[in-house]
Amino acid sequence: MTAGTQSMVRARGLRKEYGSQATLVRAVDGVDLDVAPGETLAVMGPSGCGKSTLLHLLGGLDRASAGELWLAGRRIDTMSERGMAALRRDAVGFVFQAFHLMDELTAAENVELPVLLAGRSPRVARRRAGELLERVGLADRARHLPSQLSGGQRQRVAIARALANRPMVVLADEPTGNLDSEATLDVLRLFESLHEAGQTLVIVTHDSRIAATADRLISMRDGAFIDETRLTGGTSGRLGALLDLDG
Amino acid sequence: MQQEVVLALLAKEPSHGYQLRARLRQALGPLGDAMNDGQIYVTLTRLEKAGQVSSERAAGMPDRPDRKMYALTAHGQQRVASWLAEVSWPKPDLAEFHLKLLAAAAARLADPVAIIDAQRRELLRRLRDAQRAAMAEPDGSEAALLLEGVVLRLQADLRWLEACERSWSGRKART
Amino acid sequence: MGGLLLVTRLVGRDLRFRPAQAVLLLLAITAATTVLSLALALHGVTQRPYQQTRAATRGPDVVALFGGPVAGPQGPGPAVPTVQAEAGALTGAPGVSGHGGPYPVASAVLQLGTIAVQVQAEGRDQGAAAVDQPKVTAGSWVRPDGIVLERTFADALGARVGDRVGLNGRRFTVAGIAVTAASAPYPSLCYQPGGTCVASLPTSCDPTRCTAVGSGEPLTTLQMGQAWLTRPDARALASRAAPLAYVLDLRLRNPAWAPAFAAAHDNAQLGGPGSGNLVPWQSIAYDDGLLVQDEQQVLTPGAWLAGLLAIASVAVLGGGRMADHSRRVGLLKAVGGTPRLVAVVLMAENLAIALFAAAIGLVAGWLTAPLITSPGAGLVGPPGAPSVTPATAAEVAGVALVVALTATLVPAIRGARTSTVSALNDAARPPRRRRVLIAVSRRLPVPLLLGVRLIARRPRRALLGAASVAVTTTGIVAVLTFHATADDRLRGVTRIGNPVVTRDEQMLLVITVALLALAVLNAITTAWATVVDAAGSSALARALGATKRQITGAIAAAQLLPAVPGAILGVPLGLGLFVAASGAGSRGTTIPSVGWLVPAVLATLVAVTALTVIPAWAGARRPVTDVLAREA
After folding, report:
1. A114 to C544: CB separation less than 8 angstroms, yes or no
2. Inter-chain contact A100–C631, Cβ cutoff 8 Å?
3. Which of C175, C244, C421, C628 is least surrounded, with the fewest CB atoms within 10 Å of its CB?
4. Nearest chain C Cα to A161, which residue?
5. Taking CA atoms, what residue in B is nearest to A45?
6. Chain C contacts of A85, Cβ < 8 Å?
7. Nearest chain A CA: its distance from B106 CA (Å)
8. Once rounded to an integer, what is the mean pLDDT over residues B28-41?
9. How far does A167 lie from chain B, in Å, by closest CA?
10. Non-local CB neighbours of C110 within 8 Å, separated by 6+ positions
11. Phi, psi of C71 (to 5 degrees)
């Protein structure tokens, strides 16, 4: 963590436990984390290591059992339920593995929903939805229902929805878990473009392709961080090395 | 037979030829069935010539390669150390990496998990480069196809490395 | 056989997993079956006690009345020789096998404490008569200065043996209380066609003291009670304004001939308040049963209402369970069950619950029936319960099964038809898209936005909710209308209790309680079903930033918005139902004041909202991630 640059997300000693005594499960066990503004962070680990739980804590979807959590300098773990709802609405955008779009709403209606929830006028909401769908390349599908969209398109709509209220952080939980490789590429491109635009991203993933787009990769096991890798700055830069034609 | 592999097998202690062969067999399992028995002795001879391995005839044993006692020289040890630290991944040769880990663990020369992590990091960086290059290519170019193949292979290797890490971490936890 | 075992086991397992829903279903059908079995119990009661009274009192087959009520100063009433001639002709007519009387009947004002009531006092011998000897149930038979009161009348008055009463100013003591089959019990004494009142009305009664109003209105005769005195005492009560009337009891060789005999020998000139002066016992029996019939009139529409509400509850519950059912259906099939097995299991479960509810309803109805079916104190009859016949049991069970079937047939068939794959993928029927509602909702504040969209997702449930609120309000308004009408009719007239109205009120209380219970159940089940169905989208909305309060408000709005038209609709429906049930016609009905109606409607809506908010609030407490993970 570089001094002087305030972290977008900061966690100290974050802990989340379920059950009691005999059946106590530590889903997140003492995690310290700093995410710089504009950084893309990937969290990888085996199933059940707690990475999804960690993401839920960061996004205010769940409350930590212990530890401190800041988002853009504001203390989150002590916030009221109301405050957390406002947080989810304005400061954080969530992308789920199962997309979680409303089946009976069109793509545009799905995207504009967070804007309406924030109390903006329907016109503003519709306009914003249009911009975002344009951004993710689905302007021509604005009036389609989710059932009429492919998996990759649905996830892109979900990403557009996550961006609706200009969140400070976009949190993605296995965004390509339900997608084929073609759709994964689309989502990949989208994440890259978000990164270029300066969006802070925290992505939980199994997929090394997604992880490879990150600036930093953290490995997690049994609720704790075990490894951290800086990925910016690749190999010797020689793509020939990839194929080892001289070898 | 990779020379480094044979060297690494001697890193723990000097062994007879036939012991080396047995260890290899065991490490490779069914994949070792295809191994040519004689290859290992050819490699040993070459290494001896290169001065990385020294051999001795055991007392009372016939002068056959499988009964000879082999040991690493200082030169050989150096070569093993630098091989362990290497992350070049020349061609997806799973057997070599697998043996590297086993040798490192047996000889306590390095932590296999650290080796795996280092290799993973390298592969991730390569994946990133390859992906970037693939996305920069125009649609339908032949290079793009090739790059996609590279990406997919790297992905597969990475998955295997993750499995290695799980397995070796578990082993470490038990000891 | 193995199939039956499998089905039984699957049903048992399912019931154990979801006991709460099963219990709600049970309660809904039980409420309906209880009301139904009460209604059925009353059916068979009507005639029996009268027969017993007839047997016990050696009741007459025909009662002959001589002299009638004279409003205002008129002629002196029938002359004694005329009466004796007529009586002689009647007693000697073919078919007559015995007689009693003629007895003199005087009308007087009876005063007990502060109550003054009209009374028809028959003069009797102290010994027992061969025909029509009223059976004394307390105290003893007539003696000088002693008066015997008819039992229902005594109950209404609150009079007991030994009480001192005044009769036209003279002091009497209540010597005893008796029942008779020769006249209908209070307050039906003068009610046609079996009315046997002959006494004339006093014209000199002070309106502020008398409960009788000398205006000729039918109301006045409601207040007349039957009593017996010694012959001399009765004769002494006659006056110029209220001359004596006479009553003759006849026994026929064949009691079934009574109506024909009465028609043949009727002499209108001498008659009672109606056209004829001969009253066959069948008419008296009919009047007797009026009390019970009145109750039936109240119970039957009540039972219908209860049934409708029960169907609504079950439909909502059935629809709600189907969401889980579909997944289980799919799994059942995946494990190798046929669609037939699936449908059988689903139906079997609901039918089992329905049968159980029928049993409970029968027992509950059987236990509460005595409270209602004791046919007024005026008849000798066991206050015990009418027996539950196999026919009754079958009818109640049948209705319960039909209710369960109606509500669950469609979802069950649909459930059985879904393909395994689609059943495993989609939890329930995918919601339909209602473009207009969605577009409209965009302009609304957040709770209404989400609430309207919830309605749009499940319009059928919204309709059902509206219907059940309508049914509830209909019942409440019908009850209010009855109260208003009864109060109006009896205003200024009742100072002593009127068993018909009291009984009716008791009945209505029972109905109201049952309806309210069902309505509460309905609101709870609809709310629960709404909450469960909305769980996924409300969790998502919360993930997107809606607060718990907004979500609770949304679910409440989703319940309340359809409830309002339902409640408003209930008002005219309730009025209509009362008019239809009471047969009084719209002129005889008093519309309850706005001061009652508006609070009733509002209270219903408030209750519905409250009953929704509680499960909604509880549901909003569950962590978002859990719900989302389940929906995935």
Report:
1. yes
2. yes
3. C421
4. C544
5. B162
6. 542, 545-548
7. 24
8. 69
9. 26
10. C116, C117, C118, C119, C147, C165, C166, C167, C225, C227
11. -90, 115
Distance between CA atoms of residues C301 and C296, nearest Å: 9
Cβ pair C457:A104 closer than 8 A: yes
Tens of pLDDT, residue by residue over B51-88, are 989 888 777 766 776 678 889 999 989 998 888 888 77
What's the mean pLDDT when you consider all of chain C? Answer: 74
Domain chopping of chain C, boundaries: 8-46+289-430, 56-286, 432-632
Give the start-to-end residue ranges of the domains of chain B: 1-86, 111-175
CA pair distance A147, C173, nearest whole angstrom: 90
Interface probe, candidates A41, A47, A242, A246, chain B, greatest B C-beta count within 10 A:
A242
Q: What is the mean pLDDT of residues C429-433?
A: 64
State the pLDDT confidence band at A199, using cuts at 50, 70 and 90.
very high
Q: Which chain C residues contact residue A87 at CB under 8 A? A: 545
Q: Which residue of A has its CA nearest to B134?
A: A185
Range scoring the smallest mean pLDDT among A10-19, B118-127, C77-86, C137-146: C77-86
Task: Supply φ then ψ for residue C520, to 5 degrees.
Answer: -60, -45
pLDDT reported for residue B91: 66
Chains A and C touch (3+ CB pairs under 8 A): yes
Q: Could you tell me if A184 lies within 8 Å of chain C, comparing CB atoms?
A: no
Contact assessment for residue A97 and residue A177, using Cβ atoms and an 8 Å cutoff: yes
Residue A159, pLDDT score: 96
> DSSP readout, C493-538?
T-SS--HHHHHHHHHHHHHHHHHHHHHHHHHHHHHHHHHHHHHHHH
pLDDT per residue over C561-602, tens digit each? Answer: 999 999 999 889 888 877 776 655 556 667 777 888 899 889
Q: Cα distance from C20 to chain A (closest Cα, Å)?
A: 25
What's the pLDDT score for residue C274?
A: 41
Tokens of C225: 């009670």
Q: Residue B31: count other Cβ atoms within 10 Å of its Cβ.
A: 12
Compute how many other C-beta atoms are within 10 angstroms of the C-beta atom of residue A9: 24
What chain A residue is nearest to B127 in terms of C-alpha separation? A212
Strand pairing class (C164-167; C96-112): antiparallel
Taking one residue from A and the other from B, the number of pairs with CB-CB distance under 8 angstroms is 62
Indicate the CATH number for domain B1-86: 1.10.10.10
Q: Which of B98, A56, B65, A30 is nearest to C543 (CA)?
A: A56
